[in-house]
Amino acid sequence: MSVAVAADTGELLAELHRLCERLPVPQPGWHPYVDQIASCRADFEHALALVAEQTQALERAAALLDGATEPVFDAAASPDLTAAWRRLEALPLPSGQHPYLDEILPALEAHRLLLAALSRTIAR
């Protein structure tokens, strides 16, 4: 890996961590999807740990972010990744005047791209 690619992937990983940290998990009792949101946040954190060890997955995520290809999840991926993908797909997306819309949507999209990249690079 070149120094430029290493720097780019390092910056990307740092930005992915920032997005994950900004994904709000509501307090139990006042949000109907708190358990689903918390699970997706935990899945995002786990995906970040995996991608930190998988340079190829991080490079694939960078390509997906550039819009070179549409992210497609490999349904034959590991059971853990597949379960995380299904939880993310089942999570209703906020819309309209949601107070944290600017934090939630980019974080969930980054999580989606990361799972797609991991599904294509991690051995089953």
Features:
124 residues; 68% helix; mainly alpha
Task: Write structural notes for this entry.
By secondary structure, the protein is an all-alpha fold. It has one domain (3-121). 68% of the residues lie in helices and 0% in strands. It is built from five helices and no strands. Helix 2 crosses helix 4 (79-90) and helix 4 (79-90) packs antiparallel against helix 5 (101-121). The longest helix is centred in the C-terminal third of the chain and has 21 residues, at 101-121. The radius of gyration is 15 Å and the shape is globular.
Radius of gyration computed on alpha carbons: 15 Å
Elements, N to C (H/E): HHHHH
> What form results from the Cα inertia axes?
globular
Into which percentage range does the β-strand content fall?
Answer: under 5%
The count of domains is 1
Based on helices, strands and strand pairing, what is the structural class? mainly alpha
Largest sheet: none
- Fraction of residues in helix: 55-70%
Average pLDDT reading = 86
Unreliable segments of 5+ consecutive residues: 1-6
Through-space gap between termini = 24 Å
Helical stretch count? 5
DSSP strand tally: 0
Concise summary:
This protein is mostly helical and about 120 residues long.
